[in-house]
Amino acid sequence: MGTNGNATVNRLALIGIPMAVFVLGLKMLAWWVTGSVALLSDALESIVNVVAAVIAWGAIHYASRPADADHPFGHHKAEYLSAVIEGVLIVVAAMLIVQEAVPKLWAPTLMEQPALGLAINFLASVINVVWATILIRAGKRHRSPALLADGHHIMSDVVTSAGVLVGLLLVLATGYAILDPVIAILVAVNILFQGWTIISSSVSGLMDHAIEGPEEAAIKQAIAENAQGSLGVHDLKTRRAGQAIFVEFHLVVPARMAVADAHEICDRLEAAIETVHQGAQVAIHVEPETEKAHGIRVKVERSKA
């Protein structure tokens, strides 16, 4: 990812902090005017959003630092740590929600000023939908795990809020106050699932999971179309670390090929892969033809007689 991409990711992460605080304020206000434990559960999840926004900004800022002597491959994985912490915080929020909701099962109460409270909560949800969409699109575009985790978490918050609003409308329609704490407990179960999803995907990144799907296919195609002059490649390995992609493989060349010619093929392959994945870090090990090629194969150019 280029300098402009880093600046965009950092800027969005920083803006996310006051956005999260503002939405939290709206949801706390909705709870205060209604006394609804379901709205309190929604607000508690937004507290996690604030903390997560701060952590995400710190991680993205640190991850954007260039490689140094102690971290020769860069600091990209800091974003995965941010996402793991966010997932853990979501689990903590779920536990707090259950703690608040269970006592209300035995002593449920109807909401005060429900229309005002629900309107405030709806406004907070609209803001979250817009902001989550921006974060998810930017996270995909710039390959930022922290932005993606934050965006998906906020979008799950929107789903939670929608469920809370529908449930509380049922409370008003039926007069069954016990639905309020029941909804809160369902919210806790939902965000537990979201927390697990974030944690598992981030741990996969920390474990150097290989690139898959269309991205891997694009790398293989770039190699196959630009390895003319070689006899093939093998042992292709890929991994993703935050916004960075690492690619390495062995390139088999004729035994009598000059070093300069082999280097030219490597330059061409590196450029082709970097065109497919901007900023990809490519390592190529050159081998003589005595090493049998396997894996991805390329058509060997024949010299004209």
UniProtKB/TrEMBL annotation:
<dbReference type="GO" id="GO:0005886">
    <property type="term" value="C:plasma membrane"/>
</dbReference>
<dbReference type="InterPro" id="IPR027469">
    <property type="entry name" value="Cation_efflux_TMD_sf"/>
</dbReference>
<keyword id="KW-0813">Transport</keyword>
<keyword id="KW-0812">Transmembrane</keyword>
<dbReference type="GO" id="GO:0015086">
    <property type="term" value="F:cadmium ion transmembrane transporter activity"/>
</dbReference>
<dbReference type="GO" id="GO:0015341">
    <property type="term" value="F:zinc efflux antiporter activity"/>
</dbReference>
<dbReference type="Pfam" id="PF16916">
    <property type="entry name" value="ZT_dimer"/>
</dbReference>
<feature type="domain" description="Cation efflux protein cytoplasmic">
    <location>
        <begin position="214"/>
        <end position="289"/>
    </location>
</feature>
<comment type="similarity">
    <text>Belongs to the cation diffusion facilitator (CDF) transporter (TC 2.A.4) family.</text>
</comment>
<dbReference type="InterPro" id="IPR002524">
    <property type="entry name" value="Cation_efflux"/>
</dbReference>
<dbReference type="InterPro" id="IPR058533">
    <property type="entry name" value="Cation_efflux_TM"/>
</dbReference>
<keyword id="KW-0472">Membrane</keyword>
<dbReference type="InterPro" id="IPR036837">
    <property type="entry name" value="Cation_efflux_CTD_sf"/>
</dbReference>
<dbReference type="GO" id="GO:0015093">
    <property type="term" value="F:ferrous iron transmembrane transporter activity"/>
</dbReference>
<dbReference type="InterPro" id="IPR027470">
    <property type="entry name" value="Cation_efflux_CTD"/>
</dbReference>
<feature type="transmembrane region" description="Helical">
    <location>
        <begin position="118"/>
        <end position="138"/>
    </location>
</feature>
<feature type="transmembrane region" description="Helical">
    <location>
        <begin position="158"/>
        <end position="176"/>
    </location>
</feature>
<feature type="transmembrane region" description="Helical">
    <location>
        <begin position="80"/>
        <end position="98"/>
    </location>
</feature>
<dbReference type="GO" id="GO:0006882">
    <property type="term" value="P:intracellular zinc ion homeostasis"/>
</dbReference>
<feature type="transmembrane region" description="Helical">
    <location>
        <begin position="12"/>
        <end position="33"/>
    </location>
</feature>
<feature type="transmembrane region" description="Helical">
    <location>
        <begin position="39"/>
        <end position="60"/>
    </location>
</feature>
<feature type="domain" description="Cation efflux protein transmembrane">
    <location>
        <begin position="15"/>
        <end position="207"/>
    </location>
</feature>
<protein>
    <submittedName>
        <fullName>Cation diffusion facilitator family transporter</fullName>
    </submittedName>
</protein>
<keyword id="KW-1133">Transmembrane helix</keyword>
<dbReference type="Pfam" id="PF01545">
    <property type="entry name" value="Cation_efflux"/>
</dbReference>
<dbReference type="InterPro" id="IPR050291">
    <property type="entry name" value="CDF_Transporter"/>
</dbReference>
<feature type="transmembrane region" description="Helical">
    <location>
        <begin position="182"/>
        <end position="199"/>
    </location>
</feature>
